[in-house]
Design goal:
The protein is about 85% helix and about 0% strand. By secondary structure, it is mainly α. The termini are far apart.
Length: about 190
């Protein structure tokens, strides 16, 4: 987390706190929702959100020990009663911690599913973009070949036109010569 800028961490945590408060602290916001609200990348949002959720769910562990014998004999009734109540409270705290752990585990599973889904969507999008790029590249190559063909056809037509002009000029010369000969025959 040290590679993430402190201002980005603050933005992510502030967005998460705000969204969590808006949900009346009943459900943690999703990584994607926080990412959008904080306007950060998915990687930074995932890392900071993991730590943010851990802070929200951290609980102290309770250890249970037996009352020493020397105290049991002196204060059997009083200490025994207090001790039973303490064990009940500890048991309740442990049950609550286990329930919280289960909630956190489920949220982590949801987070993994969200990340997996986002990855899958991006993979599909990448495949589509790659296919589109390949198609456009093929179309471009086809157009380049067609332009080359058209240029070859244009050059051939220009050569045919030049040849036709030469033939026309020759025929025009021959026609003029025939006209001259006919004119002379008609005068003579």
């Amino acid at each position: 987390m040290t590679s993430i800028d402190a201002s980005i961490i603050e933005r992510i945590e502030a967005a998460a706190d705000k969204l969590y408060a808006e949900a009346e602290r009943e459900q943690f916001p999703t990584v994607d929702t926080v990412r959008r609200a904080a306007r950060v990348d998915m990687n930074a949002a995932s890392i900071v959100m993991r730590n943010w959720r851990r802070k929200q769910t951290t609980r102290a562990e309770v250890t249970i020990e037996d009352v020493p014998e020397s105290l049991q004999t002196v204060f059997v009734q009083t200490v025994g009663s207090v001790w039973r109540q303490a064990q009940e409270l500890a048991s309740e705290a442990l049950t609550a911690a286990q329930a919280q752990w289960e909630v956190e585990r489920n949220e982590n599973d949801e987070l993994r599913a969200e990340l997996s889904s986002a990855f899958d969507e991006l993979s599909v999008e990448l495949e589509q973009m790659t296919a589109k790029y390949t198609m456009l590249n093929q179309e471009h190559n086809a157009i380049v070949l067609r332009v080359k063909d058209l240029e070859t056809d244009r050059q051939a037509l220009q050569e045919q036109l030049a040849s036709a002009r030469e033939q026309l000029a020759e025929r025009t010369g021959e026609l003029n010569a025939y006209k001259s000969q006919l004119s002379e025959k008609n005068r003579g």
